[in-house]
Amino acid sequence: MISVLLIVVALIITFFIVFQKRKNKLLLDKIKQQQKFDEELIITQQEIQEETLKHIGRELHDNIGQMLVMSTMQMNAAVKVVNDEVKTKVTNAAETLKSTLDEVRALSKSLNSDVIFNLGFEVTVKNEIERINKMGLIDSSIFIEGEKVAFENKKDEIILFRILQEFFSNTLKYAEAEHLKVNLDYQQKHLNIKVEDDGNGFDITSAEKGSGLINMEKRAELINSKFLLKSQPEKGTTLLLEYPYRTL
């Protein structure tokens, strides 16, 4: 009887262990499937966003840009025929139109992923900093350390730039900052990126995550980058990214 009892107990324990293993495997498979679905959904969303931005960039360049070119030409022609009393005003208007045309062209480039893909991450960031400075709203600067490294995946350059572009946009919209600094530090295995402003800042612990912050985090996950956003009221905001551009 004791032997039979021991065999029954052993069978019950074995059954329980097998059952638990199968249950755990099913749960892990379900989690992996959900993670894969979430990742594919994020990738699809990013692709749709990129196509939308590309379309807007092309429209700005081809349509709005051409209209501004024609307007600039007409204003320049008008300068030659108007009397001296209004010539200064017309000249100023022509210069404003030209500045607007330059801004539209620069903006269209920053929105078009094909341009970013061809220029590369570093040049695109430099161009964006230059564009922001031309706006005259904030003093922006970029510092580069280490030897430049070519990314193994060119698409990652676009995603990284979009993260920085989101930070720039938030700084210009909400921070009321006077300075914006970008630091690119090329290390042996990864690229360290630090972006900071001296604006209002906010309490991260109590702040509600908006679509901008969520997009930044999700994009960082897509390219296996470490993402950290630090901020305090009246002490500005800092973004830290660590991107593994090499597979060793």
Quick description:
The protein has 248 residues and is an alpha+beta fold. The protein is built from six helices and five strands; from the N terminus they run H-H-H-H-E-H-E-E-H-E-E.
Secondary-structure map:
Elements: H1 2-81, H2 84-111, H3 113-119, H4 121-135, E1 139-145, H5 154-175, E2 179-186, E3 191-197, H6 211-222, E4 226-231, E5 237-243
Parallel strand pairs: 1-2
Antiparallel strand pairs: 2-3, 3-5, 4-5
Helix pairs in contact: 1-2, 2-4, 4-5, 5-6
What does this structure look like?
By secondary structure, the chain is of the alpha+beta class. The chain has 2 domains: 1-111, no CATH class; 138-248, Histidine kinase-like ATPase, C-terminal domain (Heat Shock Protein 90, 2-Layer Sandwich). 66% of the residues lie in helices and 14% in strands. It contains 6 helices and 5 strands, in the order ααααβαββαββ. Strands 1-2-3-5-4 form a 5-stranded mixed sheet, covered by helices on one side. The radius of gyration is 27 Å and the shape is elongated.
